[in-house]
Predict the 3D structure of the following.
Amino acid sequence: MSKLWGGRFTKPTNQLVEEYTSSIGFDQKLALQDIKGSLAHVEMLAHCDIISNEEKNQIIRGLHTIQGKIENDDVEYSVADEDIHMNIEKLLIEEIGPVGGKLHTGRSRNDQVATDMHLYLREKTEAIIELVEKVQTALLGQAESNVETILPGYTHLQRAQPISFAHHVLAYFWMFERDKDRLQDSLKRINWSPLGAAALAGTPYPIDRQMSADLLGFEKVYPNSLDAVSDRDFILEFLSIASIMITHISRLSEELILWSSEEFNFVELDDEFCTGSSIMPQKKNPDVPELLRGKTGRIYGNLMGLLTLLKGLPLAYNKDMQEDKEGMFDTVDTLEGALALLAPMLDSMEVKAGEMKKAVKEDYSNATDIADYLAVKGMPFRQAHEVIGKIVLYAIQEGRYLLDLSLEEYQQFSELFEADIYDKLAPEHVVAARNSEGGTGFEQVHVQIKTAKEHLYE
Ligand code: ARG
């Protein structure tokens, strides 16, 4: 009987059960975190005189050897040893003999797996924060080169008012800033140490949980051993943040897809980030943003999966919880992949300022400004709105735009119109006029860029 827990059993495990219950196929991703946790645990055991220094040194040497093998891809895991924790313990005993069996004193796989995942998610959260910053840098770069690039701003996907392109991309900068904030905040809770909670109830050994927590860089020890081994909130929180973030990525992707269509023709994605059609030679497809948009579903799915997994579980550990990992790994990989692509794609994107300008000239998005013009001259805004509605209808029926109407035509609608109306209607003026805090006015956009830089670089 070679199982680490084989003592109580009289028959070997059914082969199908062994395969079905094993998690080594995916939790081997936690190998290095598992070793890190064990190193801290064994230091603590020796410090508390639960094992001798000699034993500690042997175990540490053994763990280092195994770590080296893992890093060189030189280990063979076995399904029979179920998961990464027992695989490593098995390897350790093979490496240093029975003394390796002392490693598992005063802990259980339940606090061990929770510790591994806290460590894993901390590393990944920090890495993702850096990737988000690269996307923000790319957005900021496009904003800085396009403060004076004007395009139609939309509501209901109808042209509404002209805006600065910088303003548009900076909207995404702030979404990612909030995502980053959420990630940073979540680190507070990721940094709780479950180690030493043991199976569920703590341990009779005189362990020092604060010491192992300190060694692992955790800020706090879970005050309740049951909670420590059954809490997966930190993963739920990560998946929630990831879901919000991929929503932002998906919305941005949707805009890139629209903008790079011939109908909009506002941007051109670099050839490097597009693919062709096997049948239609003229095509250049925005596959990358389409796929980013498409990846959204699996991250939402991972969040829903874990919420559902946990909702009916009694305390403390249940084997169901082994299902918490793949969705987390998949979300990390999906998000890292998305962010790593997004930054260079945004960087290399060509912004077609001329086409955007043309679109602004061929619309009625300056209509609000004529209303404001009359309002400034004393007409109540509601009444001015009515007048301009009539002017817009007249222009549409004539097949002309607002800047094309003559002063005489304007004056037929209101005597308040004077020659200065044409300056007021020029897109540059329309944009510049929106100089209220956080508005698209050029001056405000410059202020916003400065604030964005402070957030990113300070
Ligand atoms: N492979 C298990 C998991 O990922 C580790 C914890 C197992 N604990 C237990 N009591 N069976 O959840």
Q: What stands out?
A: Residues 23, 27, 83, 109-110, 113, 317, 319, 321-322 surround arginine (CB under 6 Å). The longest strand covers residues 158-164. The longest helix spans residues 109-145.
